[in-house]
Amino acid sequence: MPNSDLMERIGRQFTESAQTKLRALETLAAPIAEATELIVRCLLANGMILACGNGGSAADAQHFAAEMLNRFERDRPGLAAIALTTDSSTLTAIANDFDYEQVFSKQVSALGSSNDVLLAISTSGESRNVLRAIGAAHERDMRVVALTGREGGEIGKNLSAGDVHLCVPHARTARIQEVHLLTLHCLCDGIDFMLLGAE
Q1: What tens digit of pLDDT does each residue of 63-96 get?
Q2: CA quadruple 186, 27, 59, 36: dihedral positive or negative?
Q3: Distance separating alpha carbons of residues 80 and 118, to the nearest angstrom
Q4: What is residue 2's predicted lDDT score, i.e. its pLDDT?
Q5: pLDDT tens-place string over residues 47-58
Q6: Which of 56, 116, 132, 135 is the most exposed place for a label (fewest CB within 10 A)?
Q7: Does 199 score more than 80 pLDDT?
Q8: 112 burial class (0-12, 13-18, 19+ CB within 10 angstroms)?
Q9: What is the DSSP letter of 123?
Q10: pLDDT > 90: percent of the chain
């Protein structure tokens, strides 16, 4: 028989996750819809989504890019997206020759254009390299969709009027990441809905 204390902890994780997602719905539904429309306009204008983040947020950036390039739940042509977290030669060259804070911003400056959107993911809202990427995106006249948590941190303070801020109202990293994943799936579903219509 499994340990009862362990089972109780597992139950608390599930309950807290579900409650956090339901609370987040109240504040995130409208900005998720806004971000979806922004991304669709970008794609219809032959733009691309550039995604970045660190750690679990890097995995989220890659997950989103894969859903765009391949498919989400329906077959469709691939959509232009790239995760700026995957090229180890580029990442280590920039970090070695300059500093780690520039690993995303230098890529945005080289690859981004005014038709593109930066998907910037940081659970704390304080990731310096993501913040620098946002600055580079603004210099290229790109719009930004920022996924953060807590109070949004420095990233929340550095967004422009045309950007979309998806800030999860929670302080715990695991809960923020869980809502970020759900948010990304909402974006994927909404993009397919707007491009392909209802099933």
Answers
A1: 999 999 999 999 999 999 999 999 999 999 999 9
A2: positive
A3: 12
A4: 83
A5: 999 999 999 999
A6: 135
A7: no
A8: buried
A9: S
A10: 97
Nearest to 159 by CA among 185, 113, 122: 122
Element at 166 (helix H, strand E): strand 164-168
Contacts of 163 (CB under 8 A, 6+ apart): 143, 144, 145, 146
| pTM tops 0.85 | yes
In one-letter notation, the amino acid at residue 53 is G
Instruction: For residue 104, give the amino acid letter.
Output: F
Kindly give, in sequence order, each residue whose CB lies less than 8 Å from that of residue 2, ignoring residues fewer than 6 positions away. Answer: none
Alpha helices, DSSP H, located in the chain: 4-44, 56-69, 88-97, 105-111, 128-139, 153-157, 173-196
Cα four-point dihedral sign 111, 113, 117, 120: positive
Predicted local confidence at residue 4, as pLDDT:
87
The domain that holds 160 is classified in CATH as 3.40.50.10490
**Residue from 110, 106, 105 nearest 120 by CA:** 105
pLDDT at res. 40: 98
Q: Tally the domains of the chain.
A: 1
Q: CA 31, CA 162: separation in Å to the nearest integer? A: 12
Instruction: Tell me the residue range of the domain where 150 lies.
Output: 4-196
Bridge pairing between strands 81-83 and 49-52: parallel
- Walk across the sheet containing 164-168 and list its strands: 81-83, 49-52, 117-121, 143-149, 164-168
